[in-house]
UniProtKB/TrEMBL annotation:
This is Chromo domain-containing protein. Pfam families: Chromo. It comes from Gongylonema pulchrum. The lineage of its organism: Eukaryota, Metazoa, Ecdysozoa, Nematoda, Chromadorea. SUPFAM superfamilies: Chromo domain-like. It comes from the Eukaryota. PROSITE patterns: CHROMO_2 (PS50013). Signal peptide: none annotated. Residues 5-50 form the Chromo domain.
Length: 50
């Protein structure tokens, strides 16, 4: 969960301003409303859940 939203799936990746980002599709939200999230933020969140 990030900012109160649940990650459904990752649908893309890019390098932006020297950082790796993933395009996150959120649970219950249309795919066209996916948002870019820094990879290190995703890793921190996922590690804290495991």
């Amino acid at each position: 969960m990030i900012d109160g939203r649940i990650v459904d799936k990752l649908i893309g990746r890019r390098s932006h301003e020297g950082s790796l980002q993933y395009l996150v599709c959120w649970y219950g939200v249309p795919e066209e409303d996916a948002t870019w999230v820094n990879a290190e933020k995703l890793v921190r969140i996922f590690i804290s859940v495991v």
